[in-house]
Amino acid sequence: MPADNIINRELVIQHLGHWPSFHDAEIVSLRFTRGVPGYWPVIYLKIDVIGIGLVELEFQEVRDYKLDGFNHQNVIFDISFNEENELINCEIDTSYGLGGSITAQSVAVRRFSPHL
Questions:
Q1: How many CB atoms lie within 10 A of CB 58?
Q2: In this structure, are strands 6-7 and 99-114 parallel, antiparallel, or unpaired?
Q3: Number of domains comprising the chain
């Protein structure tokens, strides 16, 4: 599914002309924080789209997650975003390393840093 439901996706699209597939991109950072001021936690994923740039995704009000396999290299085979019952479900299919799913109230591009 296109990333129509991702807040600030234009930060990535304005540099690339499209939303990337993330195939063969690598998750280089995974961070959990408490939800402030809310109850639900926040998850941050930093993804290195090889040769293009770093995309940091912010998952707000995380309701559920199943993540496994984070290690020295976390290559994405496919990543998809689907809306279900007013929540966004992100499925991370792995080629190697971190894979799983995150269900959150919202997903936003927090930052895009092009490789220079």
A1: 20
A2: parallel
A3: 1
User: Model-level pTM greater than 0.90?
Assistant: yes
d(CA 31, CA 86): 24
Other Cβ atoms within 10 Å of 10 Cβ, number: 12
Residue in the structure block whose two tokens are 């040769």: 51
Instruction: Give the domain range for residue 31.
Output: 6-114
Nearby residues of 61 by Cβ (< 8 Å), 6 or more positions away: 35, 38, 40, 42, 104, 105, 106
How confident is the model over 12-39, as pLDDT tens digits? 999 889 998 899 999 999 999 998 777 8
CB proximity list for 72: less than 8 A, separation 6 or greater? 97
